[in-house]
Amino acid sequence: MEHVGSTGVKGCYAKPIIDLDIVLYSINDFQSVKKLLELVGFEHRSDIGIPGRESFINRVSDYICDDHEYVCDPKSQKFPEHIVTSEAT
């Protein structure tokens, strides 16, 4: 797992949303991971326009802040960009 997004960047103003990348060893593991996330209250939202990164949103109402999970194929073109952007500061 990688902590990404504005809350993952030191000194950056951040909204109360935690963004996490769940990095797969193999894209073949996606369906198993998707089922597990749905069991604990996450809703799959597709790749929302970014190939290689499937988006999930937390639907459990008793959390303190929102969190979004992205299940990522480490071989996708966009994955390194997502990590570098979060580590830039």
How is this structure best described in words?
The chain is α+β, with helices and mostly antiparallel strands and 89 residues long. 22% of the residues lie in helices and 29% in strands. It contains two helices and five strands. The protein has helices at 30-39, 78-87, and strands at 2-4, 17-23, 42-44, 53-58, 66-72. The chain has a five-stranded mixed sheet, sandwiched between helices. The mean pLDDT is 78.
Describe how the helices and strands are arranged.
Blueprint: E1 2-4, E2 17-23, H1 30-39, E3 42-44, E4 53-58, E5 66-72, H2 78-87
Parallel strand pairs: 2-5
Antiparallel strand pairs: 1-2, 3-4, 4-5
What summary fits the major beta sheet? 5 strands, mixed
Tell me the strand order in the biggest sheet.
Answer: 1-2-5-4-3
Helix content: 10-25%
- Global outline: globular
Estimated share of beta-strand residues: 25-35%
Distance between the first and last residues' Cα: 19 Å
Average pLDDT works out at 78
SSE sequence, one letter per element:
EEHEEEH
Brief overview, please?
With 89 residues, the chain is α+β, with helices and mostly antiparallel strands. 22% of the residues lie in helices and 29% in strands.
Throw out a few tags for this protein.
5-stranded mixed beta sheet, alpha+beta, 89 residues
